């Protein structure tokens, strides 16, 4: 029989160790390849779903930008109309305000003057005649039927 020397035992141990190490590395590489395949598939799926979503988001952003531009145009038009209305109001007030106040004051003065003449009229002109009798104006509302003074 052949005796096994220490170098041969060491060689066998090293060979077994390398075989186990290569097996572990092969399993690890197989799992890494499987993980990379799954990751590649996941990235492809996400890309397939993300591209239409990004296109929709881009369309929505463009639409919102168009609406904002329209609102901005409307706001500037409203501001212009407001300033024009303010200028028109100021013009009308300065053009007609003074003369209208003068006409109103003149009308008030005329009414007051005409009303003042009635108050200055003699008492007999303001009297009422009731059943053949003259009653002064101050007693008009106080007289009732059937009562004698």
Secondary-structure element sequence? HEE
Unreliable spans are: none
Please tally the β strands and state the result.
2
Q: What's the tally of helices?
A: 1
**Shape, please?**
rod-shaped
Q: What summary fits the major beta sheet? A: 2 strands, antiparallel
Tell me what the structure shows.
The structure is a single chain. With 149 residues, the protein is mainly alpha-helical. It contains one helix and two strands; from the N terminus they run H-E-E. Strands 1-2 form a two-stranded antiparallel ribbon. The protein is rod-shaped. The model has no long low-confidence stretch (mean pLDDT 82).
Short descriptors:
mainly alpha, 149 residues, rod-shaped, 4% strand
Task: Break the fold down into its secondary structure elements and pairings.
Layout: H1 6-120, E1 128-130, E2 133-135
Antiparallel strand pairs: 1-2
Report a brief summary of the structure.
This protein is mainly α.
């Amino acid at each position: 029989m052949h005796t096994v020397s220490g170098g041969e035992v060491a060689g066998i141990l090293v060979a077994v160790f390398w075989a186990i190490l290569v097996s572990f590395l092969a399993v690890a590489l197989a799992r890494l390849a499987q993980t990379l395949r799954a990751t590649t598939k996941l990235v492809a799926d996400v890309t397939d779903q993300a591209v239409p979503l990004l296109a929709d988001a881009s369309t929505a952003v463009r639409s919102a930008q168009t609406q904002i531009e329209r609102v901005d145009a409307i706001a500037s038009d409203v501001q212009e109309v407001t300033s024009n209305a303010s200028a028109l109001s100021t013009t009308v007030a300065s053009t007609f305000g003074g003369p209208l106040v003068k006409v109103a004051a003149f009308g008030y003065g005329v009414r007051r003057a005409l009303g003042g003449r009635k108050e200055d009229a003699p008492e007999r002109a303001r009297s009422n005649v009731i059943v053949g009798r003259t009653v002064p104006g101050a007693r008009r509302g106080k007289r009732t039927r059937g009562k004698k003074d």
